[in-house]
């Protein structure tokens, strides 16, 4: 029996069905895709549900910016991988914060203090008690 030559077929072992996992990842990658801006990455999400579902590696944190609202979600995971999320609202600062003004302080003069002391001593002795009963 003679040896028969079969030409090399590179497509023989390829999967004829398209990869469905990559099709599922495409919408997620479009919404939660890091945006590179001057060396910093911004991760955009389309809402709180997507921020809650965003995976964070253990001992790391990420700031997730909401595309639909002025909100930032700060998601971090501890060493065991348990995530926690904090929500911050972005509020525009329209003017510089004003310093809190202290209320004006009024002082007592020595003469006023001396008069008050004399009145108190007189009340203790009972001199002005008779004057008040006349009223």
Helical segment count: 4
- Contiguous runs where pLDDT drops below 50 for at least 5 residues: 35-39
**What is the beta-strand fraction?**
15-25%
SSE pattern, N- to C-terminal: HEEHEEEHH
What is the number of beta strands? 5
Radius of gyration, in angstroms, nearest whole number = 39 Å
Brief summary:
The chain has 135 residues and is an alpha+beta fold. It has helices at 20-31, 48-53, 110-125, 127-133; strands at 34-37, 40-45, 60-66, 71-77, 83-89.
Name a few traits of the molecule.
rod-shaped; 135 residues; 5 strands; five-stranded mixed sheet; single chain; 4 helices; alpha+beta
Description:
By secondary structure, the protein is of the alpha+beta class. It has four helices and five strands. Strand 1 and strand 2 (40-45) form a beta hairpin. The radius of gyration is 39 Å and the shape is rod-shaped.
């Amino acid at each position: 029996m003679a040896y028969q030559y079969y030409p090399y077929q590179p497509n023989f072992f390829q999967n004829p069905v398209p990869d469905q996992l990559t099709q599922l990842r495409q919408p997620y990658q479009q919404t939660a895709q890091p945006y590179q801006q001057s060396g910093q990455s911004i991760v955009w999400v389309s809402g709180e549900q997507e921020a809650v579902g965003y995976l964070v590696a253990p001992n790391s944190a990420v700031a997730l910016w909401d595309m639909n609202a002025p909100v930032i979600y700060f998601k971090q995971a501890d060493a065991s991988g348990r995530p926690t999320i904090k929500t911050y609202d972005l509020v525009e600062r329209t003017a510089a914060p004003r310093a809190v003004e202290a209320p004006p302080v009024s002082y007592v003069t020595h003469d006023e203090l001396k008069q008050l002391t004399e009145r108190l001593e007189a009340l203790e002795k009972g001199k002005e008690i008779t004057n008040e009963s006349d009223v």
